[in-house]
Amino acid sequence: MKTVPRAAPIPRPPPRGRIIGAYLRLTKPRIVELLLVTTVPAMILADRGLPSLGLIAATLAGGTLCAGGANAVNQYLDRDIDEVMARTRHRPLPAHLIEPRRALAFGVALVLAGFFWLYLTVNLLSAALSVAAAVFYVFVYTAWLKRTTPQNIVIGGAAGAVPVLVGWAAVEGRVGVPALVMFAIVFLWTPPHFWALSLRYQRDYAAAGIPMLPVVAGRDATTRQIVVYSYLLVASSLVLAPVGHLGPVYVTAALVLGLLFVRGAHRLRRRGNPSASLGLFRYSIAYLALLFASVAVDTIVSHGL
After folding, report:
1. Domain boundaries, the chain
2. Which CATH architecture is the domain 25-302 placed in?
3. Which of 136, 144, 169, 232 is the most buried if burial means most Cβ atoms within 10 Å?
4. Shortest CA distance to 159 belongs to which of 177, 141, 180, 178?
5. pLDDT tens-digit profile of 86-97?
6. Would the pLDDT of 246 be above 90?
């Protein structure tokens, strides 16, 4: 008697909660949080005090939508290399939790929602700047620079510096000189921050064919550039004090945090091991958050609020 082969079981769709979590992960919440950390201090400095909580909430909501949408489109475009790299292969698209076309539609919808939200609740300039940052991140960095030049993160980092301009514009309706200095701080912070991470995952980027600086120029050249950018970063942070009329709270924080950043960069230059690169990467996150927090604290203390 012949046995009839059993049909292969139909794969069950992932639980709804897992799908919702996957869509959330498409927005890269940790990166969005870091971007928002720079927005509120810029608003406080522009206002010379504490803006209305409604304006802060509206600006953060719109910025979250635009940045999250850009990150989702970034993952749509990078799904091929994310599948190769060990660090990223568990993201929603390589893990096949979300269809690529749905991820793309989700990202575009978030950016559009962010634009209209900011336009209706804040002002047109903030909305335009947020969308410009998203477009730059998607088309200039992700689709072009990331795969073609080791200077990808240097130029592409401009997108991550825009939130300070958005915050300033939300309060004043224009972009002031202190906002441009804060833009420069984030812009100069991005290369040492990201190169420290790319040193840790150099093999991943090489396997994916991404010309990150450590892959193209090697560890020695990369650590040298990290040291150079660290000094430029500290210098730009000190320029903000006279331009933004900031006092001893900020100056002290900028000096102490900056010296620690430079020390970490030199330690990485000497040792060049994964532990030192990951240590500088983690400290760089704390550095940016604490530096901008000191902008807010100094402004509030100086104005007796």
Report:
1. 25-302
2. Orthogonal Bundle (1.10)
3. 169
4. 141
5. 999 999 999 999
6. yes
